[in-house]
Design goal:
Layout (H helix, E strand, L loop, with lengths): L8 E6 L5 H17 L6 E6 L11 E4 L3 E3 L7 H8 L1
Parallel strand pairs: 1-2
Antiparallel strand pairs: 1-3, 3-4
The protein binds FE2/S2 (inorganic) cluster (FES).
FE2/S2 (inorganic) cluster binds next to loops.
Length: 85
């Protein structure tokens, strides 16, 4: 067994069938914003499979806070990072 290095926080971005229509732009938006805020090494951005919240697509989850956010828009990324990371 080998323990891997990981950031203390993770933003999971759904890449399921419905969220996948938006996930590329949302993921890129979070990565750019985290880099601009100097948080790139502290927060990982990871794709996840469908979480059965499809009617609220696109869905993200912020861990370890276990915060789930639906209907995320690109223009809200900066505020989400400021408020919840
Ligand atoms: S596809 Fe994202 S919650 Fe189902």
């Amino acid at each position: 067994m080998k323990k891997l290095d990981a950031a203390g926080k993770v933003i999971f971005i759904c890449d399921g069938k419905k969220c996948g229509n938006y996930s590329k732009e949302i993921r890129k938006g979070f990565k750019v914003e985290l880099k601009d805020c100097g948080l790139k090494k502290e927060v990982d951005v990871v794709r996840m499979t469908c979480s059965d919240n499809c009617k609220h697509a696109p869905v993200i989850s912020i861990q370890p806070k276990n915060l789930w956010i639906g209907e995320v828009q690109e223009k809200e990324i900066s505020r989400i990072i400021k408020d919840y990371i």
